[in-house]
Amino acid sequence: MALSDIAKNRRIDPLLIGIALLAAFLNIYGIWKDQFANSYYTAAVASMLQSWHNFFYASLDPGGFVTVDKPPVAFWLQTLSASLLGLHGWSVILPQALAGVGSVILVYVLVKPSFGQWAARLAALVAAGTPIAIAVSRTNNVDSLLVFVLLLASWLLFKAARTSKWIWSLAAFGVIGVGFNVKMLQAYMILPAFYLFCLIAFKAAWRRKLGILAASTAILLAVSFSWPLIVDSVPKENRPYIGSSQTNSVLELAFGYNGLSRLTGMRGPGPQGQADNGQSIDGRQNLDNGGQNFRPGQDGPPGNGAPGQTAPFNGNNPRGPMGGGGGAFNTGQPGPLRLFQSQLAGQISWLLPLALFGAGSLLLGIRRRELTDKEKETLFWLAWLLPCMGFFSVAGFFHSYYLIMLAPPIAALVGAGWAEIYGFYRDQDNWKKWFLPVGLLAGTLFEIYMLMLYQAQTGTLLTIVVGVSGIGLSLLLCLLLVKRKQLKSVAWAAILVLLVSPLYWAATPLLYGGNSTLPEAGPQLRSSANPDGMRGMNRENVNADLFAYLTKNNTGEKYLFATTDSHTAAPYIIQTGQAVMAMGGFSGSDPILTVEKLQEMIRNKEVKYFLLSSGGFGGRGSSEILQFIREKGKEIPQENWQGAGSTTGSLTLYEVTLQ
């Protein structure tokens, strides 16, 4: 039997296979160039490989001192990958890359039943070429996995509506609960879409609908808070400190740093909050920094310092008070047009107006009659898209790669909307036939505007090609010069013109090297890439002389040494597998230790060596800790542990024994 017959019998769409292969290429090719990926999370995987205790809590260090700032589900998958393939940058990236490909396929599966095969193909192609989705999927940041989980939940919800088997609704909300344990409240951004869809699409009486929603919500909350409540119920002395929290609580982390703080831009009150002027444990000021922001293309923490060096913030610490200005991390100024500013537009907004135009076209026939399946699903995608747009337009603290949350609804609405307006034109449906040329012209003009924002990096050739092609095709359609037999080819050529620019942007992490810490796409990567094509990660080896000295003089201490933050600790954890204590967690600002607790650990022979920077003192508690180490410790001469050409010249090694 011919391969085409097999594909037909199994209902495999050859074009979907091609789109999936394109997505796989963009997501996976070259990830082996990334040595450590985001070293903060890779260190956690290295630690989780060593014990079930570390695995369950997602401990940053093998000693189980502090966790990373996210729930563990994504890192469980990364650890599984590393256990099978070895601990490498590419092995911890692979789950996210595969999730990116899976998301493209799920978009196709979600769109096809109601909108047709061609709409599904286009939606999948748009999803495959979304710049920020590709950039994130090529790192070990967890957002790509989160989007895959949410799309899987959407598929279950659609199945519940089509089959009227409400067990699928319970499963859908349960999967969102799993998403909560990937990236906390970010998973809940799609809840407006889920609740709306349940109300308009479920074929049941209102009382039964409300009962189903109540049961589904109960499942959502039970799954969401299963891990947080278990962890918070464990005595604090029997588990790691919850990284980036102020009260050693997962729930506080979820609703504080990973919750309300994202909207307000303020970390909120706490031992290391605004009261201490936002300083971290090593005395370096937090990101507040007089209102200064990251420069475009500037790497942020974690993972952008050389191993053996303290975190190179110079005032740019993202774990402190954010000030609410909204410009931190190069995310533009808050407002209704934020997504169209140069800082964010290139990551996600190329086809955003076309998605909204398509949604409007799909909803033209809405009346008080019963909604069609197309209209119900259009409202679902809009209810996913619009609240997310609103949040990112006003939020005070987020990274540009969070915009991957907009990728599925944009892709679905572009695919479904383009198929709809193509049908209007094909059928010469009165005034609706003008939607196709008008949509193409508007989309072309918007992309010209977008390309003008980045003309310094792209030049004028791409702008001319897109402008001439798009305007020319729209004129052909306006003048009705396209024969019916040629219409489908012209319509596809037109949408492909609009896909050229985002596809180029999506390819830039592959072409020029990506940023594994703060993923982004765009031609600006060309000017900041390292020779091996990667940036934003730890590239040097650990200080071998320091490691040899510490290993030789270790007398049974649990920790090889302690330092202020994860940036110094992570390379040693990854490359040596030894327990290194980050006293202040990720950036040195977590209120984990007191002088009394540290004294107890020293007397119990858990730690005796401390690698500190020459910076000044930080907040109240952290200043006291550093003062204690410097006053009670013996400074080890650098010639004893510092080799020629070492990168740790700004650091001082202390030995504290309290004997």
How would you describe this structure to a colleague?
The protein is mostly helical. It has a domain at 544-655. Helices cover 55% and strands 3% of the residues. It contains 27 helices and five strands. Strands 2-1-3-5-4 form a five-stranded mixed beta sheet, sandwiched between helices. Helix 21 (461-478) packs antiparallel against helix 22. The longest helix has 29 residues, at 484-512. It is globular and about 90 Å long. Residues 268-327 and 616-620 have low confidence and may be disordered.
Write the layout of secondary structure elements.
Layout: H1 3-9, H2 14-28, H3 39-48, H4 52-57, H5 73-85, H6 89-115, H7 117-128, H8 131-137, H9 143-163, H10 167-183, H11 191-201, H12 206-224, H13 226-233, H14 250-264, H15 342-348, H16 352-362, H17 373-394, H18 407-426, H19 435-453, H20 455-458, H21 461-478, H22 484-512, H23 544-552, E1 561-563, H24 566-576, E2 580-582, H25 595-603, E3 609-613, H26 620-632, E4 634-635, H27 638-641, E5 651-655
Parallel strand pairs: 1-2, 1-3
Antiparallel strand pairs: 3-5, 4-5
Q: Shape, please?
A: globular
Q: Report the major sheet.
A: 5 strands, mixed
Rg, alpha carbons: 26 Å
How far apart are the termini? 82 Å
Strand order of the largest sheet: 2-1-3-5-4
Q: In which range does the helix fraction lie?
A: 55-70%
Extended strand count: 5
The amount of beta strand, in percent, is: under 5%
Summed up, the helix count is 27
Structural class: mainly alpha
Spans of at least 5 consecutive residues whose pLDDT stays below 50 are 268-327, 616-620
Mean of the pLDDT scores?
87
